[in-house]
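Bit of a strange request maybe. I'm writing a small parser for structure token strings and I need a real example to test against, not something I typed by hand. Could someone generate the tokens for this chain?
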Amino acid sequence: SNNGYFSFLLALKGAKHVLGIEPILRPYAQFQLLSHFYPLNNLSSNLWGVEDLPAMKNSFDLILSMGILYHHTDPIGQLRDIKNSLIPGGSLILETLFIPGSESFAMTPEDRYGGMKNVWFVPTEDCLVTWLKRTGFSNFEIFDKTWESSAEQRSTEWSREISYKNYLKSDDINQTVESLPALRRIIIKAYKKP
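Reply from user aminoacidic:
Good idea to test on real output. This should exercise your parser:
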């Protein structure tokens, strides 16, 4: 759940209870700080990760998986764990990277992708839908398909780190410096079969 941005939004929209899970200490601590100044009775967070989902079978009516699927070596197992953690008929909102292509396949970068060394599998849209179908999801709705933006991933006075534009070819912004397709994001909603 990172620093809890979407968790706060869901709680403020009236969810009965929102549980954010975040295995990395820095964003978890940011959530705790925000909660201290803006406490909500229907919002909590724990220092857990997706690997803890098997202990939470049939527990959630909605799960948001935002930008983590491609960072794990077993996307199929992760989708299966998410599905098993949903109640029958529950829904998943999945935001992940994808690559263009009309066939069902996934790219595995040899070393880095867009400068990131922790990207394991980047599917085509058809491959992502196939993964979801094979793990027990149905009724797919695609909300958004966009190019990664250097307006979003950028250096600022607060963060002077190298930004996304540094990992695109200077003569072709459709390719990363690794000569792979430039990063694209997809947001898809899927339902656990009842």
